[in-house]
Each structure stands twice: as C-alpha cells, then as structure tokens.
Model the fold of this input.
Amino acid sequence: MGGQPVRSLSHPASERYSVTLVPPAVQAVAELTEATGLSKADVINRAVQIYAYLEAQRAQGREILLRDPQGVLERVHIV
Done:
C-alpha cells in the first residue's frame, strides 16, 4: 500500500488468488477457523478487510489502541 490511502471499490468482482502463507499465518488461520467455525476463505477475507480498514485509519493519522480490562492503553504497531 506504500502509504497511499486505501481506495474504495464499489462492488469489485470476486477474484481467486494463490498465496503461500508463512507458518505463523497458517497457525492463525487454523486457530480462527476452529474458534469461529468460518471457512479458511472467510477467515482470510475478513483479515484482509480488517487490515485495509486499519491501514486507511492509520493513513488518516489515527492510532490503533487496545485497552486492557484495567483501562491501560497500548498502541498497536502493524509492520
């Protein structure tokens, strides 16, 4: 994405990709399919959409923060 804002496409057609996932991503997909009951495709689709949203927010100068149960904030860095 190179720092450019994420472009919104109105209704893009479905597209098939063949990708090789690194072992931690394979594990994450397996854990998410087990925890959610979603298919691998659904898990990966949701992950890409969340990443696009977070990147768009970051490009607008927003920070991504997590708050723990005690109210402590932690800034999330996506590299």
About this structure: The helical segments are 23-36, 40-59. The longest strand covers residues 65-67.
